[in-house]
Design goal:
Elements (H helix, E strand, L loop, with lengths): L1 E8 L1 E7 L3 E7 L4 E3 L6 E3 L2 E7 L7 E9 L8 E10 L5 E7 L2 E3 L3 E9 L5 E8 L5
Parallel strand pairs: 4-12
Antiparallel strand pairs: 1-6, 2-3, 5-10, 6-9, 7-8, 7-11, 11-12
Length: 133
């Protein structure tokens, strides 16, 4: 199994297409977010991971997402989510992870994502200062 893509999104919808085939409509993919209040602040971005299972693999695994203060595996951990899932071999699935992140500074954080003990897939997110009205 492997991660095809992982993105921060505002929302998504599943819909059927002829075939039968499924479509995933991703809305508002983003790589930066404006802080709701000056730091320290809490944000709760939604990360969607699209996962493919090879036809020869068992369809059970675990998605692990660790939100870190940087791109390195020993950078400080902000939050962690582990969720088991099942997917039919030869098919795709998705997992939605909502991180509740308490941040004390503006700048980049990274969602470190992997299936079981596989390679890490990094998704950057930049926290920007609040917009003055």
């Amino acid at each position: 199994m492997h991660i095809i893509s992982a993105l921060f999104v505002e929302s998504f919808e599943l819909r059927q297409a002829p075939g039968p085939s499924t479509r995933i409509d991703l809305k508002g993919a983003f790589f930066s977010i404006v802080a709701p209040t000056p730091v320290p602040t809490t944000i709760d971005p939604h990360l969607i991971a699209l996962i493919y299972c090879n036809p020869t693999e068992p369809g059970n695994s675990v998605l692990e997402v660790i939100f870190r203060d940087g791109p390195l595996p020993d950078d400080p951990q902000l939050a962690r989510n582990v969720s088991p899932f099942t997917v039919e071999p030869g098919k795709f699935t998705y997992r939605l992870v909502r991180g509740e992140l308490q941040l004390t500074s503006y700048g980049q954080i990274f969602a470190h994502c992997r299936i079981a003990t596989g390679p890490w897939h990094l998704v950057p997110l930049t926290l920007l200062p609040p917009v003055s009205a």
